[in-house]
Amino acid sequence: MLKVSGLDVDPEVLDLQNRAMRHVGAARPGWVPRPVPALDGREVVPVYSGARGLIVRLLTWLPGTPLRGVGYFAPAVLSAAGGLAGRTAAALADFDHPAAGRSLSWDVQRVGDVVAAIAPQVRDRKRRELAGRVAERAIAALSSHESNLRRQVVHGDVTDWNTLARPGPAGQLLPCALIDFGDVVRTWRAAECAVAAVAFGTRSPHRTVQDAALLLRAFYAVSPLDEDEVAALPAMMAARAALSALNCQWQAEQEPKDGYVTAGATESWRRLVILAEVPFALAHAAFREACGLRSSTRPPTAARTSGAALVPELDRLVVVAVDLSVTSALLYGGAWTDRRQVEQVVATASSKTTVPIGRYGEARLTCDSGSTQDEPATIHLGVDLFLPVGTPVMAPLPGRVAAADRHGLVLDLDGVGGLRLTGIEPTVLAEGRVASGDLVGKISPARPQALLPAHLHVQLVPSSVRHVPFLAPASLATAWRAVCPDPSPLLGFEAAVGPPEPQAVLARRRRHVASPQLLYYSDDPPQIERGWRQWLYDVGGRPYLDVINNVAIVGHSHPHVEAAAVRALRSLNTNSRFLYDALGRFAERLVALLPAPLDVVFFVSTGSEANDLALRLAREVTGRRDVLCHQSTYHGWTTALIETERAALGVPSAESGHVHGIMRPTADPATAQRSLEHARRLVAELGALDRPPAALITEPVLGNEGGIVLPTGHLQQLYAMVRDAGGLCIADEVQVGYGRLGHHFWAFEQQRVVPDVVTIAKSTGNGYPVAAVITTSQIADEFGRRDDLFSSVGGSPAACAVGVAVLEVLVEERLQDNAREVGYYLTERLRSLAQRHPIIAGVHGMGLYRGIELQEDGPASARMKAGAICDRMRQLGVIISTTGDARNVLKVKPPLCVTRDDIDTFASALDVTLTQGW
Ligand code: PMP
To answer: N or C: which end of the chain has fewer CB within 10 A?
Structure first.
């Protein structure tokens, strides 16, 4: 790499750059370019052509892709970037050079001088003023730490433009090398981190603090900062953003036609706008948390005992906490979205002697659960006191009215600081003084669109933060709790709940639950504590669109299903050897859904039991052992069934096992034809061995392979072959049946066949264990002549009540029709995504059972990519998983109550993921 500089560049500075490169390279070989000396040994060589000259340097070339232009940085990328910056700073800690003390307009420690020099020359007033404001705030904040900040030589420009990356295992580009030592300078050590945090942490305005904290965590691990440095970081980031924005804007105004320069100005402006909104106090709290430093917040010093009650008689009332959190037992059936029901819940805790309160720190369900791609604000940062409209509210301590409007006020209490009281009509004016016990307002009626009834919201708010939210996103809960501490001491009663502890929950599971019981997102799983319709909520109150759960076919926590289960569990739940009405009724309803001659039902609890029983029926009835299935496909976990998953391509011999794999068909007619030919050979070979098949077991639409719809007539031919050989045909409808395909209630209808045995589970109980084997009375009776069946809980009154309720909801809510109609829309959206994103190799399935097949391109395997795409989708509020042999198929099988809006949510999250990266 030949680097060319003008003759005006100080050769000492070029020497500084070269030596810094050598120094870092010695500690981290291969990380940075190495200067290559000329034949005469010089590394900085002036070259002249007549009177004109240049300075050239030769550097080694480093392989890798610049990260510039990448739309999204995954946590792994942020950590790698933080590690790169941290190790560079550590490597340069013992380096110095006479030119390192140079004055550089990108150096954050010079922010004051640079703003003074450049800002007046910038023509764009809006940009100039914003940069000026941000810089001013940063300078003020830095001044209190400046004397304690360590200085050293730093690279000074660890950004996405200057880092080279290599694809990691999931196809994410992971930073691995650093180029461009043009900004090497002696400055604050922490500036190395601040610069990287601005560059990498500002992709999303909603995640800036979290992303910067992730990067800092990795930086800190290899290059620890001290308390002052961590405290100064937010202001350093702001200073850097202001400097870049001003420098770039000024350059762009000088060279408006230079695309590189104008693009830089646009980008740095975008970053400044984001950082201008980040409160330093919040970032500081989050950064301390990232570095494992204890919270520096002190709870209010003036406790309630030293002042007056906020509302009359508060001391004598019994405080009753109303649980409005995700894990609340008071809120179900979607009650949190309905004001009347929330009011009712609060009212039941209210009496002459009690005051219901909403606690500090709880993850609220009461807030909006829209289909947002950004994490919603759910963590309550104050305490709510539900009191009658008109209740007087008093100042608890003396102070000043810092602000007041028609919704409430902020008091600046002596010795405590800001206290926000909202939900009241103030009776005092801003700027006035108040004494302890002075009336400051009266509780006002709830706003028309509010979900909570009238209440006084009490919150400690620092004066340094301009816009303090009422609720915070869970990922910033600890930081916001440090900024707005628990007001319990001021109120005189305990009103806080601790933050959720998903890590402890995970640790308990890891300790006591067998490791082969798999976990979604195993590295960092969300703690899911609630389901409602097509949504799952984590313990922090974040809703996710559930695209995984075909089991919850009518939607999570369906009130009709719940009521049926509760009724049965309250009155009778025993085994099917007793005579009770529910068993026959459920059987009758199931049989009515099936074509003749399928007319009797065996009840069990899971799909595995159903398929296992189906095989046993076939073996007993035919007196044979051999079974055909599609090559390595899943029908359940029992010892008999796991053989189908392990079944390689069948080549029967005297020694072979009894389960034989048929080459798997696809939607492609030629492949399907080859599969039929293979099946024919298998049947013939088994016949020749005098071991004709007892049965064939298949999913009529290949769900586990991603929803492969077989060519017309495929199963007809396969069934005919098996039946000609005297075997039974078992249709595994556990995943693909029950209306999910939209056009058909049963997947076998799509193939125009009638099986001898049908197995159902999963959807049958909407998550409650309900499963069945449906067959002909002839087969059942034949089995009965040799054997009987007893399942202790299969077909229990509760199972049957739930089973009937699920069928009722399917009919009443026309969910099969919905699967068809919304399924059409899903097809449209997926086709258009496939046109724009070549990674999509194909879209399979029908209705609301779909597979999106991803193809190999580039070094990362499609499997790894699919996993990383699922992780990114989760960040965007969508829960989805993979299937297929190579786990390269994204499986789409949501509850059937999804709407077109949900499909838009899903498709747009997938679009963002495939466009920005994962
Ligand atoms: N058959 C198929 C096609 C399945 O996908 C599954 C489960 N994924 C089963 C049977 C087994 O069902 P269960 O987990 O209820 O035992």
So the answer is: N
Q: pLDDT digits over 314-363, tens only?
A: 888 999 999 999 999 999 999 998 999 999 999 999 999 999 999 999 99
**In 10 A of CB 224, how many CB atoms?**
13
Strand 543-546, strand 878-879: pairing: parallel
Residue with CA closest to ligand 1 atom 4: 635
Among 273, 212, 264, 245, residue whose Cα is nearest residue 114: 245
Q: Is the link from the previous residue into 700 a cis peptide, with omega within 30 of 0? A: no
Return d(Cα 375, Cα 581) in angstroms, integer: 47
**Phi-psi category of residue 396: left, alpha or beta, with phi > 0 → left and psi -120 to 50 → alpha:** alpha
Determine the distance separating the centroid of ligand 1 and the alpha carbon of 733, expressed in angstroms: 9
pTM of structure: 0.94
d(CA 199, CA 567): 58
Backbone angles phi, psi at 166, to 5 degrees: -120, 150
User: What does the block give as tokens for 452?
Assistant: 């909570």
Ligand 1 centroid–CA 668 distance in Å is 26
Please tell me what DSSP assigns to residue 651.
Answer: -
Helix (H, G, I), strand (E, B) or coil at 868: helix
Query: Residue 491 is encoded by which pair of tokens?
Result: 């109120």
The residue-averaged pLDDT of 176-198 equals: 97
145: Cβ contacts below 8 Å, ≥ 6 apart: 228, 229, 231, 232, 235
Give the single-character DSSP code of 402.
E
C-alpha of residue 517 to centroid of ligand 1, in Å: 15
Contact at 8 Å (CB) between 67 and 160? yes
Peptide bond preceding 299 in cis form (omega within 30 of 0)? no
What residues flank ligand 1, with Cβ below 6 Å? 606-608, 611, 634-636, 699, 703-704, 732, 734-735, 761-762
**For ligand 1, mutation pick of 609, 762, 889 (most atoms within 8 Å of CB):** 762
The residues near 622 (Cβ < 8 Å, ≥ 6 apart) are: 694, 695, 726, 727, 728
| Atom 5 of ligand 1, residue of closest alpha carbon | 735
